[in-house]
From TrEMBL:
Protein name: Zinc finger MYM-type protein 1-like
Pfam families from the UniProt entry: Dimer_Tnp_hAT
UniProt-listed InterPro entries: HATC_C_dom, IFN-induced_PKR_regulator, RNaseH-like_sf
GO MF annotation, one: protein dimerization activity
Species this chain originates from: Aphis craccivora (Cowpea aphid)
Domain HAT C-terminal dimerisation: 8-100
Domain of life from the UniProt record: Eukaryota
Amino acid sequence: MYLINEKLENLLSEYQLWTKKWEEISDDLNKLNAIKTLEKCDKQFFPLIYNLLKILATLPVSTASAERPFSTLKRLKTYLRNTISQERLTGLTLLNIYRDIIVDPLLIVNKLTQHRKRLNLLV
């Protein structure tokens, strides 16, 4: 409990010094964002503020990245594809989400021929 109180006191004193520093700076504060502020923060003098700004700069602004797979799944699972198996639907969804990854058909055929001995494909 003592360690938490000490950290809190350190953070409060750092915050007071931080606000004094920004009162003296004549930059337009409306143009600053978390990353620009992080660049201007001195890690030696304000280690706790620096860590808090680093966390703030890495937090997602929205939940779009979490909702993207669901909207993709909704588009893929149309009336015609209702009978698709779950494994194939998952594969199609991943292909749609990660469009920037180039899929080499030759590698896929080679991988399939390794797993199934009866499959004799000439490539």
